[in-house]
From TrEMBL:
Domain of life where this protein originates: Bacteria
Name of one Pfam family that matches: ABC_tran_2
Protein name listed in UniProt: ABC transporter permease
Family annotation (InterPro entries): ABC_tran_2
Keywords associated with the record: Membrane, Transmembrane, Transmembrane helix
Regions crossing the membrane: 26-55, 67-93, 120-140, 147-176, 188-207, 255-275, 326-348, 368-388, 409-434, 440-462, 482-503, 509-528
Organism, as annotated: Oceanobacillus neutriphilus
C-alpha cells in the first residue's frame, strides 16, 4: 500500500508540478474561491426553477425519484465519455509510461497511480453537476440530514464506478486487439469511439421500442411505486441504488440502497485491480511498435507542391490537431459531446414535443438563454490556449523559417476561430428545428460569431503569456492549466451579470437587448484586437523561454 501511495504522489506531482514553479499560484486559489462559488450560484439560479417544476410535476404521480435517477444517469453518460478519453491517454498513450515499467511495482500499483489524475477530472465534472443539484433537490424536498450524508457518499464513490467499468473493458481490448501496427490511427478511433458508444446506447434503447410498447411500459411503471426510476435506471443499476438511497434517506431502504451501491463499488474496484494485474502491462507492451509507411510518387509530389505560405501554415495547424489524438479529443471531439448528446435526446426522446419550444418562449428570454449558451460553449477554447504550446520544442523553427510573423499569428487565430464553430453549427440546426424565430436566430448567430473572435484572442493571449513549451506528452497541455478555466469562468460571470440585469429589467424590446449586447461584445473585441496588435510581436515569441 505504501508503494501504491508513493507512486501515486509522484505521478500527480509530475502532472501538476508546473503549478508550483510560478509565484502567482495564490492568484489561482483566490480566483477559485471567488469564481467557482459564483458559477455554482448562477447554475443553481438558472436550473433551480426548472428542477423545481419537474419535481412538483413528478410529485403529483408519486414518481419524484425519477429526477434523481435521471441526473445520475446523465452524470454517468458524461463520465463514461470522458473516461474513455482520459484512460486511453493516461494508461496507454502517455510517453512516460515506459519510465515506470522497470520500477519494482506490481501492475495494479502502477495502474492505480495512473488512474489518480483521470479520476480528478471525473470528480470535477461530478462536482459541477451533482453538488448544485443535490442542494436544489434537498431544498425543494425538505430533505433530512441523512440525504446530504448519502449525497456526500455518492459523490465520493459513484464517479469511480463508470471509470473502473470503462478501464476494465479497455484493458481487455488493448491486451487482445493488435493495434500496434496502426498506433496513431487507433488512438483517434478509440477516442472518438467513446462519443459514438454513448450515443449508440441511447439510439439502440430507443429504436427497440415502438410508441405503443413505450406507452404500455410507461403506464405499467407509473402505477408502481418508484416505477419510473426502475424504468430509466435499468441500464445502470448503480444509478438506481444511488437515487433510491437519496429518495429514502430517512428510512432503512435508503441504508440498504447505499450499502448495495458500496458493494457494487467494491466489486468493480476488485475487478479493476484484477484486470490491471493480468492485462495492463501486456497491453502497454503491445503499444511499443508502429508502422513506417511508404509514400507513393503521387503523394510525394503533392507534399512538395508549392503553395501559399499562409495556406500551408493553416493546413499544418489543422493537420497537427487532426492527426494528434490528444489534440483531436480536446479541441474537436470533446466540445461536440454536449451538442451531439442534446441532438440525440431531442430527436429520439422528445420528438415533436419540443419542436414548438422556440415559439412559446418569450423572445427576450429566448435570446438571453442562447447568448449565455454561446458564452459557455465558446469562452474556453482549447485550440486557442494551446496555439503556441502545441509546437513544444519545435516552436523555435518558426523563428528561422522565412514565414512572415503576421501570417504565423493569423493562421493560428483563424484555425482557433473555425474549430469551435463545428459544435456551434450543430446547435444552430437544433435552434432551427425548435422553431426559434429567424430574427432571434440571426441576431444570436451574429453576436456569437463576434464573441468567438473575442474568446479566441483572450485564450491566445493566455498561451502567449503562460505557455507550456517543455512537455513530453500532449496531454500535459491540458492538465494542471487552470488559467484558461478561470478566465472562462470570469467571462461567464461578467456576461452572466449583464444577462441577469437585462433579464430582470422591464425592457422587452429584443432588438434593444441585441444592440446592448452587440455594443458590449464589439467594444471588448476591439480592445482585445488593439492589445493583441500592440503587445504581441516577433520579439514576444522569441522571448517566451525567458
Amino acid at each position: 500500500m505504501r508503494n501504491t501511495w508513493e507512486v501515486t504522489k509522484i505521478m500527480l506531482k509530475m502532472q501538476y508540478s508546473s503549478g508550483g514553479k510560478h509565484s502567482n499560484t495564490w492568484i489561482y486559489a483566490l480566483l477559485a474561491v471567488i469564481l467557482i462559488p459564483f458559477f455554482l450560484i448562477i447554475m443553481m439560479q438558472v436550473f433551480g426553477a426548472i428542477i423545481e417544476n419537474v419535481y412538483h410535476m413528478l410529485t403529483e404521480v408519486n414518481q419524484e425519484s425519477m429526477l434523481l435517477g435521471f441526473v445520475l444517469l446523465f452524470i454517468t453518460a458524461i463520465l463514461l465519455f470522458f473516461s474513455f478519453i482520459t484512460i486511453l491517454s493516461a494508461f496507454y498513450f502517455s510517453d512516460d509510461i515506459t519510465a515506470y515499467i522497470p520500477l519494482p511495482l506490481h501492475p495494479y500499483q502502477l495502474l492505480i497511480g495512473k488512474a489518480a489524475n483521470p479520476l480528478i477530472y471525473n470528480y470535477l465534472i461530478s462536482a459541477v453537476i451533482f453538488i448544485p443539484f443535490l442542494f436544489i433537490y434537498g431544498s425543494i424536498s425538505s430533505a433530512p440530514i441523512l440525504f446530504y450524508v448519502y449525497g456526500f457518499i455518492l459523490f465520493i464513490f459513484f464517479p469511480i464506478i463508470p471509470f473502473t467499468i470503462v478501464a476494465i473493458i479497455l484493458m481487455f481490448l488493448m491486451r487482445y486487439v493488435n493495434i500496434a501496427k496502426n498506433k496513431d490511427r487507433s488512438k483517434i478511433f478509440m477516442g472518438a469511439g467513446s462519443l459514438i458508444f454513448v450515443i449508440l446506447v441511447n439510439v439502440l434503447v430507443r429504436l427497440n421500442l415502438d410508441d405503443a410498447a413505450l406507452m404500455s411500459a410507461f403506464t405499467a411503471y407509473i402505477q408502481e411505486q418508484e416505477g419510473l426510476l426502475k424504468m430509466i435506471t435499468t441500464i445502470f443499476p448503480p444509478a438506481y441504488f444511488g437515487a433510491l438511497s437519496l429518495h429514502f434517506a430517512n428510512s432503512w431502504q435508503g441504508l440498504l440502497a447505499i450499502v448495495a451501491l458500496l458493494a457494487i463499488f467494491i466489486i468493480t474496484a476488485l475487478l479493476f485491480i484484477w484486470a490491471g494485474q493480468r492485462f495492463y502491462l501486456k497491453g502497454v507492451r503491445g503499444m511499443s511498435s508502429g508502422s513506417k509507411g511508404n509514400l507513393s510518387e503521387k503523394a510525394s509530389h503533392k507534399l512538395t507542391k508549392q503553395r501559399s505560405i499562409l495556406k500551408t501554415y493553416i493546413r499544418k495547424e489543422i493537420k497537427i490537431i487532426i492527426r494528434t489524438p490528444a489534440f483531436l479529443m480536446q479541441c474537436v471531439v470533446q466540445p461536440l459531446f454536449f451538442p451531439v448528446f442534446i441532438t440525440v435526446i431531442l430527436f429520439l426522446d422528445l420528438g415533436e414535443g419540443l419542436s414548438s419550444l422556440g415559439s412559446v418562449t418569450p423572445e427576450k428570454n429566448l435570446f438571453l438563454i442562447l447568448f449565455m449558451l454561446s458564452i459557455v460553449m465558446l469562452s474556453i477554447n482549447a485550440t486557442a490556449f494551446t496555439a503556441i504550446s502545441r509546437e513544444g520544442p519545435s516552436r523555435k523553427l518558426n523563428l528561422f523559417l522565412p514565414i512572415p510573423f503576421h501570417h504565423l499569428i493569423f493562421a493560428k487565430l483563424l484555425v482557433a476561430y473555425l474549430i469551435p464553430l463545428i459544435p456551434f453549427i450543430l446547435i444552430t440546426f437544433i435552434g432551427i428545428y425548435v422553431n426559434i424565430p429567424i430574427h432571434i436566430l440571426i441576431g444570436w448567430i451574429g453576436i456569437s460569431l463576434l464573441y468567438n473572435c473575442l474568446a479566441v484572442i483572450i485564450n491566445f493571449l493566455i498561451d502567449v503569456y503562460s505557455p507550456k513549451l517543455h512537455w513530453t506528452d500532449e496531454q500535459e497541455l491540458f492538465k494542471g492549466r487552470f488559467t484558461p478555466l478561470f478566465i472562462s469562468l470570469g467571462q461567464t460571470a461578467f456576461f452572466g451579470i449583464i444577462t441577469l440585469i437585462l433579464w430582470n429589467t422591464n425592457m422587452e424590446n429584443v432588438y434593444l437587448i441585441m444592440l446592448i449586447l452587440l455594443i458590449a461584445v464589439a467594444g471588448l473585441t476591439d480592445i482585445a484586437k488593439t492589445y493583441l496588435k500592440k503587445k504581441i510581436t516577433l520579439e514576444t515569441l522569441q522571448n517566451l523561454d525567458n
